[in-house]
Write a structure and sequence with these properties.
Elements: H1 12-36, E1 43-47, H2 53-62, E2 67-72, H3 75-88, E3 93-97, E4 109-115, H4 124-133, E5 135-146, E6 153-155, H5 159-175, H6 185-191, E7 198-202, E8 205-206, H7 212-231, H8 244-255, E9 258-260, E10 264-270
Parallel strand pairs: 1-2, 1-4, 2-3, 4-5
Antiparallel strand pairs: 5-10, 6-9, 7-10, 8-9
Helix pairs in contact: 1-2, 1-7, 4-6, 5-7
Length: 272
C-alpha cells in the first residue's frame, strides 16, 4: 500500500490492518478475558467486533455451552467476520450489524466487551452505560483501549521511528474524539454508574527485525498517511512510506534499540 492510497472504514485494506492489529493485541485481550472472569457457558456481547477477532477469543473462553454475538456498524466488517467464523468452524459465534445506540438487549448478556471502541466515542461513559444496560446484574463490562495521548519510546532513541510515531500521534489526537480515554477509565466507569473498575496498564517490547508490532506500525502509518497529510501532522524526516519498514528495521538493528509501545488500559467491572 503506498502513500497515495485512501483510508476507508470497512475497506479490504483496513480489514487487513485490523486483523494484523488483532495478532498484536491477542495476548492483552486474552488476559483481559481471563482476568475479567469471562468463562464457560457465558453469553457475551462483543462491541465493535470488526472482522471478528475478539469474538473468536471470547468464543474459546466460553466454550460450546456459551455463545458470542459480535456487533459492528460496518456491514462489510460483519460479513468478513461471518466468513472467517465459518472457515474456522466457530458454531457458538454470531455477528450482526448494529449501531452503538441500538445494541441488542433481550435476553440480557452475561458480559459485554469492547476493544478500541471508546477512543471513537465523544462520550465514552455513555458507551459504557449502554454496554452495561444490556448486561444482567452481576454481569461483566470490559474494555481494552490504547493510551494514544502517551508516547512509545526507544532506548537509545531512534530518530526515524520517533518522527513517524510523533506524526501518527499528532493525527490521532486531532482526529479521534477520545484518544486519552485509557487514562480516564476509572472516571468513565463511575460516570456510567458502574463500580470502580479494576485496571491493567501494559506496554509491549517490540523486536528489532521481523516483528508483528513493527509491521502494524508501518501499515498504520501508510494507511493513515493521506489523512495525516490533510491534517498537517507528517514529519518530513520520515520520507518514503514504501521503504519505511526497511529503514526502521535497519536503524533499530544497528543501534540494538529496545522499543516499547505506548500503554494499553484494560478495565472491567461487575454490574451491581
Amino acid at each position: 500500500m503506498s502513500g497515495g492510497s485512501h483510508y476507508a472504514p470497512g475497506s479490504e485494506a483496513e480489514l487487513e490492518r485490523l486483523q494484523l492489529q488483532a495478532r498484536c493485541l491477542e495476548g492483552l485481550t486474552r488476559r483481559l478475558i481471563r482476568e475479567a472472569g469471562v468463562g464457560p457457558g457465558m453469553r457475551v456481547l462483543d462491541l465493535g467486533c470488526g472482522p471478528g477477532d475478539v469474538a473468536f477469543l471470547v468464543a474459546e473462553a466460553v466454550g460450546p455451552a456459551g455463545s458470542v454475538l459480535g456487533v459492528d456498524r460496518e456491514e462489510r466488517s460483519v460479513l468478513t467476520a461471518k466468513r472467517r467464523a465459518a472457515e474456522a468452524g466457530f458454531d457458538n459465534v454470531a455477528f450482526a450489524v448494529a449501531a452503538d445506540d441500538a445494541l441488542p438487549a433481550d435476553p440480557p448478556f452475561d458480559a459485554a466487551i469492547g476493544r478500541f471502541v471508546l477512543i471513537h466515542q465523544a462520550d465514552p461513559a455513555a458507551m459504557i452505560r449502554r454496554a452495561a444496560a444490556v448486561v444482567r446484574p452481576g454481569g461483566i463490562v470490559a474494555f481494552l483501549e490504547p493510551a494514544l495521548h502517551l508516547d512509545s519510546y526507544s532506548l537509545p532513541e531512534l530518530e526515524l521511528t520517533s518522527a513517524a510515531a510523533a506524526s501518527l500521534k499528532r493525527f490521532m489526537l486531532a482526529a479521534l474524539p477520545s484518544p486519552d480515554v485509557a487514562g480516564r477509565m476509572l472516571a468513565c466507569f463511575l460516570d456510567a454508574g458502574l463500580p470502580e473498575p479494576k485496571i491493567l496498564w501494559e506496554s509491549v517490547v517490540m523486536g528489532s527485525k521481523d516483528d508483528v508490532w513493527l509491521r502494524l506500525f508501518v501499515m498504520s502509518y501508510q494507511t493513515f498517511l493521506p489523512l495525516m497529510e490533510r491534517h498537517g501532522t507528517v514529519d518530513p524526516r520520515v520520507g518514503d512510506p514504501d521503504t519505511l519498514a526497511d529503514r526502521i528495521r535497519a536503524e533499530a538493528y544497528a543501534r540494538r534499540a529496545q522499543s516499547v509501545t505506548g500503554p494499553f488500559a484494560s478495565a472491567w467491572a461487575t454490574k451491581a
